[in-house]
Specification:
The protein is of the alpha+beta class. It is built from 13 helices and 12 strands.
C-alpha cells in the first residue's frame, strides 16, 4: 500500500474522517466530542434554507445531550465564498427540523463551522470578517485543531477548541470513508480490491455494487441519497477495470441478473477455495499478486500484465 499524506493530498477527506472519528470516539482520537453526545448525522445532505437557497454541508453533527447542531464546511484552500456564507447565515432551526430532518431536541442552538488549514487561517479570517459572518473558524494543523475566530453557541465547544484540541492527524483512521470524489482511481481501488479478494476467498458467487459500497465505506448509511450514486460510480469504475484487466479470469459482469439484483453485478469465477488445500494456497497467493499488480498499474498508468505472465513470474 502506498502511503500518502492526507493533510496535503486530500484535506477534505481527512477532515471528514477526523470528525466521524471524533463523533465515534475511536481509539487514538480525543473522546470529548463523543462524551458531549455528538454523533455524525448526514454527509453532504442538500437542503433549502429559509430564503429558498440551497446549502450542502460537508457533514452535519448533532448532540441531543446538549441540544446543539453543527453544520461543518471544510476549506482546503485560503478563500471563502461570500454567496455560500450568506446562504448558511439564512439557515434556521425550522430549516434543520423540516428540511434536514434534524431531531427537534438536537437543534435548540446551531452553528455553521468553517474548518481550514492553519496556514490559511489569516485569509479565511479576512473572508469571514468581510461578510460580517459570525461562524466559528477552526484552524487545523498536523497536531491540533484550534478555534481562531468567533465562538460556538455552546460553551462545551468553545472550551474544547478554544485552547486547541490535540489531534495527531497521522493517526486519524481513514477507513470510515476511504476515498471521495477527488481521489485518484488507484486510491479507490485500494479500498475496493481487498473487499473483492475477501469475497472470493469466502466463496461468494457474485459481487453486487450496492453491497460492495456498504462493505467498503463504513459511513455509507450516513451518506445523502444524492451522494451515494456518485460513490457507486467510482466503485463501479474499479470493478469494471478489474474485470477488464488483471482480474478478467475471475470477474465477469452479469447484466442478465441485474433485473433481479437491482444493481450492477459481477459473477465470481475460478474461486481459489474451489481447489484442494494445497492448490488453494497457491491460488490465493496468485490472487494477492493480481491485486498488487492491478493497483500498481492504476497508480503508475502502465499497461496491464497478462494474467498468465503474472502467474508465471510469481512462480519463478
Amino acid at each position: 500500500m502506498v502511503m500518502i499524506d492526507p493533510y496535503s493530498h486530500n484535506f477534505n477527506l481527512l477532515m471528514l474522517n477526523t470528525w466521524l472519528g471524533l463523533c465515534k470516539g475511536v481509539r487514538g482520537l480525543p473522546r470529548d466530542l463523543r462524551d458531549a453526545g455528538y454523533q455524525d448525522f448526514l454527509i453532504e445532505y442538500r437542503f433549502v434554507n429559509s430564503t429558498g437557497e440551497t446549502v450542502v454541508p460537508e457533514l452535519i453533527i448533532i448532540s441531543e445531550k446538549i441540544a446543539h447542531t453543527v453544520l461543518l464546511e471544510w476549506k482546503s484552500g485560503n478563500n471563502t465564498k461570500p454567496d455560500q456564507l450568506k446562504r448558511y447565515m439564512s439557515v434556521t432551526k425550522n430549516d434543520l427540523i423540516t428540511k434536514a430532518m434534524v431531531p427537534q431536541n438536537a437543534c435548540s442552538r446551531h452553528d455553521t463551522c468553517v474548518v481550514g488549514k492553519e496556514e490559511h487561517a489569516d485569509r479565511l479570517t479576512m473572508g469571514l470578517s468581510r461578510e460580517q459572518c459570525p461562524f466559528p473558524l477552526l484552524a487545523v494543523g498536523r497536531r491540533s485543531m484550534r478555534l481562531v475566530l468567533n465562538s460556538f453557541q455552546v460553551q462545551v465547544m468553545n472550551q474544547l477548541f478554544g485552547s486547541g484540541l490535540s489531534i495527531d492527524m497521522s493517526r486519524v483512521p481513514m477507513s470510515f470513508v476511504p476515498f471521495n470524489l477527488e481521489s485518484d482511481l488507484w486510491e479507490v481501488a485500494e479500498a475496493v480490491m481487498p473487499y473483492v479478494v475477501a469475497h472470493m476467498t469466502q466463496r461468494q458467487p457474485r459481487i453486487l455494487l450496492r453491497e460492495a459500497c456498504r462493505g467498503v465505506v463504513s459511513g455509507w448509511e450516513t451518506f445523502s441519497a444524492e451522494l451515494k450514486p456518485q460513490f457507486e460510480s467510482r466503485v463501479k469504475e474499479v470493478l469494471t477495470e478489474a474485470a477488464r484487466r488483471e482480474f478478467h479470469a475471475h470477474l465477469s459482469r452479469n447484466k442478465t441478473i441485474e433485473s433481479k439484483t437491482q444493481t450492477p453485478t459481477w459473477d465470481i469465477r475460478r474461486n481459489p477455495l474451489d481447489y484442494s488445500s494445497t492448490k488453494r494456497s497457491t491460488e490465493y497467493k496468485r490472487l494477492v499478486k493480481l491485486q498488487e499488480g492491478f493497483l500498481e498499474a492504476l497508480r503508475t498508468g502502465r499497461k496491464a500484465l497478462l494474467q498468465d505472465d503474472l502467474f508465471e513470474s510469481s512462480e519463478s
